[in-house]
Amino acid sequence: MKxxxxxxxxxxxxxxxxxxxxxxxxxxxxxxSPKGFPYDYSQMAAxxxxxxxxxxxxxxxxxxxxxxxxxxSGQIPGFQEAICGLxxxxxxxxxxSVFGWGTPTIPYTLYLNVPGDSTxxxxxxxxxxxxxxxxxxxxDSLQPTYFFIGNExxxxxxxxxxxxxxxxxxxxxxxxSIKVHSPSSKVGTVFNYEHFLGNGSFxxxxxxxxxxxxxxxxSKIDILGLTVYPFFGISEADSVPDTYxxxxxxxxxxxxxxxxxxxWPADSFFSPWVSSPQQQVNFVNKIFTIINGQNxxxxxxxxxxxxxxxxxxxxxxxxxxxxxxSLGNDRPALPVWLSxxxxxxxxxxxxxxxxxxxxxxxxxxxxxxxxITGPAGISVYNxxxxxxxHNNNSVNEEKIxxxxxxxxxYFLRLETDRLVFMKKIIIQK
Length: 429
Description:
This protein has 429 residues and is α/β, with parallel strands linked by helices. The chain has 2 domains: 21-338, TIM Barrel (Alpha-Beta Barrel), CATH 3.20.20; 347-427, Immunoglobulin-like (Sandwich). Helix content is 25%, strand content 25%. The strands form 3 sheets. The protein has a 9-stranded parallel sheet. Strands 12, 13, 14, 15, 16 and 17 form a 6-stranded antiparallel sheet that branches. Strands 4-5 form a two-stranded antiparallel sheet. α3 (125-141) runs parallel beside α5 (161-181). Residues 1-22 and 343-355 have low confidence and may be disordered.
């Protein structure tokens, strides 16, 4: 998502948490966001490993252009190549690549002028040939799990609906080629939900553009990508209706959907929407209520770590959506988010085959965590994301007494120097 505020266009780990999460069988993930980015990528390996340990293999979104530079048109871009190439070894995360051909600004900025032909639209035969060859090479060598071509493309429909049809024709051709070279890849394209549904009244998006989707042969879309930011038209997370995505669910049927980006701002800036850590917590619970029972394979939060470049209004909103603050502290929404992982049972497994038991669960408020390969930090959070218990040096076994807490759902977080786990626990009285 790209957003300049003046034009209003924006740039897990263990068990289910509620009756809604129990029906979410997909994966959680993040846009690529190692600690310190975009200035410092020294923590990239730690980020990749953290996501790999999330939900027994979380998703990393590599959303970038189809080329690194004008001169490199036709070559696989380094960003997507790196993210795809580092898994499943040495990292076991799931890769999701987006090969964009324009930036959703007003006007939509295209990147289709290439050496030999400066025409910057979808009539450029040289660009289409180079783009297609790059996609085929990426399919052959990288075989991404999720393979998206184009990002938030309805903006271009508004700008040039005639040339948009040339793009659709290219997509259909590219789909057929990719499936020959990487049959297991799920291929699709990405729309911004608020824009093409006209649900962004705060920023002037009031007109739906269903024809931007209707133009496709949907048999050639394995999975539909959506960026979902309800705060463009709704001021508070709890006010987002549970039926928010029903228009697309009803049209798309039971075919898979990936929410490639979503989130809610935690920091208060200039905006008509309410931004706070609590709003972020509320939205985490809301998005899983919205997708309850639907065929949503992946939900990616925009950023895990803080975007350290807040020099523009666009970036301020992006960093505000992160799950950690600028000091690296977890925001209250993170443990709630992680509780929606689709793993089941009462055991927490790490990548070395060790485990910890939590028992009894449910209980009247007294829990025992055994088999800790310590030292480890243990925290417990309530449904609002507030920490109610913490021990930073647990070894072997930890008894947690929460008898003074109300009955309901809580989240236990266990963290070692290498691994982090999350588990739902229940107090029954």
